[in-house]
Write a structure and sequence with these properties.
alpha+beta; Cytochrome Bc1 Complex, Chain D, domain 2; four-stranded antiparallel β-sheet; 465 residues; disordered N terminus; Immunoglobulin-like; 11 strands; 11% strand; single chain
């Protein structure tokens, strides 16, 4: 009775492992079907493409795949976490070998809904496409820099080409199985541009009000006061709207720095003057009201009150030659808003209304890999050349001692066994069948790949108990 129960349990567990972390390619999320409010008019995305849902799906897989780093340790999502509005709670994020990023990881939410098309704090990327591959090619972050003995991005492309699912996914997304930096960029940027948050208390209020400046019926008196202070220029208000322009709350592309010019993790006195970009002010806090990580490029502000205090009284840093004129004040002595404590609290109350809820858990933006680092792609043709009647066996599955691979009569092929990270565990030359001793392999999910003399490839999953 015990043995039978165990067998049933193992079979159920195996079923869960194979079905968890799945993407149904015949039923894709409608990434660009999100209802965008009519009052949102800024949009830096290219015109919609019929393949956008597939490209965003591929981008989602790439975004969460740690194999995009040299040592399979870091993915884009390691530094841009969904639960923190695609930002990080660390001041500086950890790279593939434990080194730290040069600046705080910016929240990526609502990146599409802005006039500014340049990216990174210092705007060094000319577009979101350009931004997506720079962390991959950073020596600290993901390691495909091509410098100092590190492999270049061509090595990443060859790595992805060796993973059977990727050529098939690129075929569906771009009409070709060829993998290139441009296609990687485009898939990632299509996914990132889809990440949007428009279900906040602010959005509910604006939908009920005649315009942005009118009192919102769902706001408290304090929240409406904070909104008025945000929108109204000095001396009557705080003038935040001058740079962070609602209702998108994107940054004015003409902005210069905000007088926070320290080098993240640097020595006192070092200056970093070129940081003029900012993420949207939406989702500064999560639905529970907790900050989605420290603020500013150096992570030096750890509360909204610290941010308000900073703008309330600007004392220009000596040597700051790039201070925004709107913050310079009379005779370039720095602005003094003279905000009261009640004003500051009202501004914070308003900023908290800009946070939504769905984006933190929505499946279309979540990690598609299961706990073992696998995804089942339902409906993915791993070999477009393979006959529909082609049949081969991998058994026992699961197994603990021996693995047998049975091929159709007359076929010889090479065999490759990889782990969940795509690393080759076994490779066997051409044969009409295979029997492998697998006792020493750790328990887990593996891929068994065969390739014939013409380069046709087939893959099955196999579980080692």
């Amino acid at each position: 009775m015990m043995r039978k129960t165990t067998s049933v349990f193992l079979g159920f567990a195996f079923l869960l492992l194979l079905t968890a972390g799945s993407i149904d390619l015949g039923n894709l999320f409608n990434y660009y079907g999100l209802a965008v409010p009519a009052y949102i008019t800024k949009d830096n995305a290219p015109a919609p493409n019929a393949a956008d849902n597939m490209r965003a799906t591929l981008g989602r897989v790439l975004f969460y795949d740690a194999r995009l780093s040299v040592n399979n340790a870091i993915s884009c999502a390691s530094c841009h976490k969904q639960e923190f509005a695609f930002g990080d709670t660390a001041v500086r994020s950890v790279g593939h070998t434990g080194g730290l990023t040069g600046r705080h990881s910016m929240r990526l939410i609502n990146a599409r809904f802005a006039t500014e098309t340049r990216f990174f704090w210092n705007e060094r990327a000319s577009s979101l496409d350009d931004q997506t591959s720079q962390p991959i090619q950073d020596a600290v972050e993901m390691g495909f820099s091509g410098q100092g003995g590190q492999p270049g991005i061509d090595s990443l492309i060859r790595k992805l080409e060796s993973i059977p699912e990727y050529p098939a996914l690129f075929q569906l997304a771009f009409g070709s199985p060829d993998i290139s930096e441009m296609y990687i960029q485009r898939a990632l940027s299509t996914f990132l541009r889809s990440i949007a948050s428009f279900d906040s208390k602010f959005d509910v209020g604006l939908a009920q009000a005649p315009n942005l400046g009118a009192p919102f019926p769902n706001f408290s008196a304090q929240e409406n006061n904070g909104k008025n202070l945000f929108l109204t220029p000095p001396p009557a208000g705080a003038g935040c709207q001058g740079c962070h322009r609602g209702p998108e709350f994107d940054i004015d592309p003409n902005s210069r720095n905000n007088n926070i010019v320290a080098v993240a993790g640097g020595q006192p006195g070092q200056l970093d003057l070129g940081n003029t970009r900012s993420p949207s002010l939406r989702d500064l806090v999560n639905p529970a009201g907790q900050l989605n990580g420290p603020l500013m490029h150096d992570g030096s502000k750890t509360s909204l009150m610290q941010v308000i205090d900073h703008y309330n009284l600007i004392v220009p840093v000596p040597g700051n030659t790039n201070l925004d004129p709107r913050l310079a004040g009379p005779q370039n002595q720095g602005q003094n808003l003279n905000l009261s404590n009640a004003d500051k609290t009202a501004l914070i109350a308003f900023l908290r209304t800009l946070s939504g809820t769905a984006v933190y858990t929505a499946e279309q933006w979540s990690n598609p890999f299961d706990a073992n680092g696998n995804i089942d792609f339902i409906g993915l043709p791993l070999s477009t050349q393979a006959s529909a009647s082609f049949s081969w066996k991998v058994y026992p599955n699961p197994s603990s001692d021996w693995l047998k691979v049975e091929l159709p009569q007359g076929l010889t092929a090479e065999l490759t066994v990889t782990n969940a990270q795509g690393q080759v565990i076994r490779k066997v030359g051409s044969s009409a069948g295979f029997v492998l001793n697998v006792q020493e392999l750790p328990a887990g999910i593996y891929q068994v790949r065969i390739q014939d003399a013409q380069g046709k490839t087939w893959v099955k999953k196999w579980m080692k108990q």
